[in-house]
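Hey team,

Sharing the RNA helicase run so nobody has to redo it. Sequence (491 residues) first:
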Amino acid sequence: MLKTGGSINRPALTNDSWKAGLQRPKKDNRPQTEDVTATKGTEFEDMSLKRELLMGIFEAGFEKPSPIQEEAIPVALAKRDILARAKNGTGKTAAFVIPSLQQVDLSKNKIQALLLVPTRELALQTSQVCKILGKHMGLQVMVTTGGTTLKDDILRLSETVHVLVGTPGRILDLAGKGVADLSECPVFVMDEADKLLSPEFAPVMEQLLSFLPDDRQVMLFSATFPMIVKDFKEKHMKSPYEINLMDELTLRGVTQYYAYVEERQKVHCLNTLFSKLQINQSIIFCNSTNRVELLAKKVTELGYSCFYSHAKMLQSHRNRVFHDFRNGVCRNLVCSDLLTRGIDIQAVNVVINFDFPKNSETYLHRIGRSGRFGHLGLAINLVTYEDRFNLYKIEQELGTEIQPIPQSIDRGLYVAPSGGEESQVQRAPQQQQLQQQPHPQPAPQQRQQAQGASSHRNGHQQQVPQQQQQQQLPQYQNGAPAAQYRAPVYR
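Structure output:
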């Protein structure tokens, strides 16, 4: 029987002098919830990992494994198939990246780990995690997605690639053309597996598996597992080790509120939220690409820095927006459900559902963009009369309660107690005038009619150091903010 916690034979690291030379980042002292702290006490050094990999882990700021990492990594290193279910933002990516990197044999110039993700942005992020954790190992990581030229990928694959990260369609294309040789790839990972096994991707996945060896190790990770995963497990996995850390579905560090409004009040409500909340960075979700662009324009006109992203934009523009937002160039990002999956931006402490989602799965993934890795976050939902039944349904399906928004929101629920100047409120130029305007007054209703009263929201505003001055607002160009430099090239 496999042992996933407790003491495992340590590697021969009797001399700890190598730790002294590590360039560790500044310690993150923000409080964390039990979603990431409720472990059995296993250390990364208990997992028989290569020293070079440990160096990358510690220099990335990792201190101790989260519960999903503690459970999954030892099992993955035993080369067992894995079916793992854990909450958003609890360390799933590292849970499969670390064992994938550990199993790479540098003497073989072959693709030895294939990591599949459903979106291009998640592919870029996952490949970056591979590079950061494996930076001392000398291995080669490549990312490939649709929306970019095949020529660059073909040239890159003519060189050594040990770990290939990408979206299913592009990797199938490369494998079908004989450019990506997966015949000796022993590790096959599917992140956000429920999405990858949806009807949209399922035929591609079936074809892709035919290019891998029969004795491959298959690992599936996700926060939600519909019935279609059971069919895949029975057909393509060998006695998988099942991990389920979903005793509850929503993150404990994310406080959820709803504001009952009319459609025409939404922009004014959003404006009030911006003026009152202390937003470090926020992601604002809309239900259509057209509404994303319209709302981004409105937010910009109100005097707030704002980028937007959706699936109909050029890939180069999406890459630029994602890169700039991640680096703190802008405080607010309006987007469609393109960015609900796996995107990990630690500075995001507020998620706003400008349009309330239609189902619980989308809701769960959206609010999981805040409160990453056990930290605090806030999810605010603008709910109209038409959304009232969806609100009730999502509460029932997730076993959670979304409270009516109070007059004043305690900053301690979503702002880390860091102190210092960085927590001071910064205001857009029109802000002083806007605060004098009356708050919207949504009518109180009983729960059956979207239950509960809500008016406005309180708190303070942002702490990302970039200015929010009107003269520095982004200029939109072909669906993305114009930048002063060329977008980075991800390889």
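The two ends are 40 Å apart (CA to CA).

Ping me if you want the raw files.
A.
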